[in-house]
Amino acid sequence: MNERELKKYESIGIVRISKTDLKNLIIAKNRDMPLLTNDSKLYAEGVKRGVKVYDLRQMLRTIHEEELLSKRKLRDIVQKIEEKDNTKINDIETIFD
Q: How far is CA 17 from CA 24, 28, 79, 80, in A?
């Protein structure tokens, strides 16, 4: 975080997201960068704060629906995301329905 972002972070009161997520929101807003997330609370907070935020599951669903990648390739990508980010994408099967 740069000095301006750090001051903004320190001035914000209680929020319902983690400190790391809050830092990411501040950086995205300050640098006019989009934020991609798998977390519904972070998504809602981003929208509330005027950050360009995208839902990972929706993006994956769109890729599948538009047949931009094969189902197998998309599943491989999901697996890599989960492994690399040490996370679990909830309701993954709804992407492929």
A: 11, 15, 25, 25
Distance CA(36)–CA(66), nearest Å, equals 19
- In this prediction the pTM is 0.81
Tens-digit pLDDT profile for the chain (97 aa)? 999 999 999 999 878 899 999 999 999 999 999 999 999 999 999 999 999 999 999 999 999 999 999 999 999 999 999 999 898 988 888 888 8
Tell me whether residue 53 is exposed, middle or buried, using C-beta atoms within 10 angstroms of its C-beta: 0 to 12, 13 to 18, 19 or more. buried
DSSP 3-state assignment of 62? helix
Q: In sequence order, what E strands does the chain have? A: 35-37, 53-55
Nearest to 4 by CA among 43, 41, 31, 40: 31
- Cβ(9)–Cβ(30) below 8 Å: no
